[in-house]
TrEMBL record:
One of its GO terms (cellular component) is mitochondrion. Transmembrane segments: none annotated. PROSITE patterns: FAD_PCMH. Residues 1-20 are annotated as: Disordered. It comes from the Eukaryota. Gene3D superfamilies: 3.30.465.10, FAD-linked oxidases, C-terminal domain, Uridine Diphospho-n-acetylenolpyruvylglucosamine Reductase, domain 2, Vanillyl-alcohol Oxidase, Chain A, domain 4. This is Vanillyl alcohol oxidase. Its cofactor is FAD. Residues 103-295 form the FAD-binding PCMH-type domain. The lineage of its organism: Eukaryota, Fungi, Dikarya, Ascomycota, Pezizomycotina. One of its GO terms (molecular function) is D-lactate dehydrogenase (cytochrome) activity. GO terms for biological process: lactate catabolic process.
Amino acid sequence: MKTRTPPPTLTEKYSGVPPRLASIAQQAKDRLYSHRTAPESIPRRHDVRLPPDTTREAFDEAIRMLRQALGPENVVLNDQPLVDGWYLEHPNTHDAFHMVDQEDLVCSAVAYPGSTAEVQAVVRWANEYEIPIYPISIGRNVGYGGSAPRVPGSVVVDLGRRMNKILDIDAENASCVVEPGVSYFALYEEIQKRKLPLWIDTPDLGGGSVLGNAIDRGVGYTPMGDHFANHCGMEIVLPNGELLRTGMGALPGKGGADNPTWQSFQPAYGPYSDGVFSQSNFGIVCQMGFWLMHETDHQSYMITFARDEDFPDIVEAIRPLAQKRILGNIPQLRHVAQELNVTGLPKSHWYSGTSPIPRDVIRKHASQLPCGDCSWVFYGTQYGDEASIKTQLDTIKSAFAAIKGYKFFLPFDLPTDHYIHSRALVCSGVPVLRELDWLNWKPNAAHLFFSPITPTRAADAKVVHEINVRLHAKYGFDLFPTLCVAGREMHYIANIIYDRSSASEKRRAAGLMRELIAEAAREGYGEYRTHILFADQVAKTYGWNNGALMRFNETIKDALDPNGILAPGRNGIWPRKYRGKGWELFGDSVEMAIGGTIAPKL
Ligand code: ADP
């Protein structure tokens, strides 16, 4: 296998990989590129994509003024060939996992502010020239749109490159304050360097922004896995340029210092405003506080179940364990098909056909893998001292014992390259890269996530699972469900892997996504997060009382952002200036745009 140029390390770049993972990252990159058949980049077909309603002259003048404000080196036109790169060398110009044409959802330029004051300057500039801006922190929101702005030609405000300081780690309060460019890798390494007995909580991949992931309401896998629920205090630039601190941060500290309880108490006084700055386009978050966890003993384990039909019983068994908090974290329940995928081997290794891999083929291969011929695989972790972990595991085993044929494994029962070892790290707050192996499944692979929420109840889980089984088969995609199961709700996350060099495969993936969203909504289930191209459709499913929630969001949007400059269309929230002018993507408009263009004919 060819060795590619080494990915940047954290010592070289704020978004790089820790030196401890450098060789793993190199192998991941080499493996990924070995499956690529599409060129790294193709010549641009179009010149700079201008913001809507702008002439080139007006745009050039606006860019000249922005360069004056930030310094010429901190405003870069997006006029070079687009390079998708890969996770650790990702673009900030477009969606590396493009669903529509690579050159369609692109920015006109990238601005790199170096301080909150400079973010305010960018916002004031955007209002003056009425140019839409789109903030990103690190821009690794893979599967949800990456760095791409929803309105082509927006100026991407890349906060991470120059605003990447860990502003504080308070060991006594077990909390920290970070800027947008601090990755899970960077925060973890700093805590190790300071030898603090604290854990962070990381998602499956550790390269994302701690702040960006939390405001997009991402999740992780320690007991503090709900990232937004474990934040405490924000500093936000509003779309009119005003600066806001939420929570106790609104009360000035003595002598101009930060408030001493900013990272101690979340809601402070009056309406709890933080929530409206998550999954929205109401402000640019420049600082955010987070709670950290105290390190503890922990034990990861894997349980396999024999039959596909056990699924409802597994869900029913998990619910009381989770509600009583016997389960230590949010466990994952995965279909055995994923055991093939997480080996990092391509689909062609297992199956030579082009159709979804048949169940009997999965069964045949699984029987040769450590999990054996099984149906569902449960990954959990327990926390506490040795004695309490033992009691917890005894309770868990006896709850699952009712399901015939279940098997229990500890990490040392499994080979050293088995996926459980990476889960054990993630579930104890150590950021890793293993989940990238998904992308070896197909050449030029990209993925979309379909992520509905259901109650933790067999009947509901079955409905959503059956919709997924039927529609994945209809559109010809392998079904890879991962269920993150809490006591009252579960995130059912289906990972739709497509070849981004194939327009027809993209069209099928978009069709599958659209129909999944629609069918789930008809049954009463909605998504917790989605790709920017499906945001309008998902937002519309939350339409109770003739769309009261969206009217509320639009009222806030119009009040805070009268010129509609901040991330128009993000999460389906369009400012007045854009509403009803053909920007919303409903029906088959994403499929129709593939190979064409996404912008409306105004
Ligand atoms: P990641 O955290 O994975 O690196 P991003 O930086 O791409 O992800 O952030 C995810 C999404 O959240 C972005 O597409 C953007 O819409 C929004 N976002 C990210 N950072 C900010 C921020 N500091 N202020 C407001 N919105 C942000």
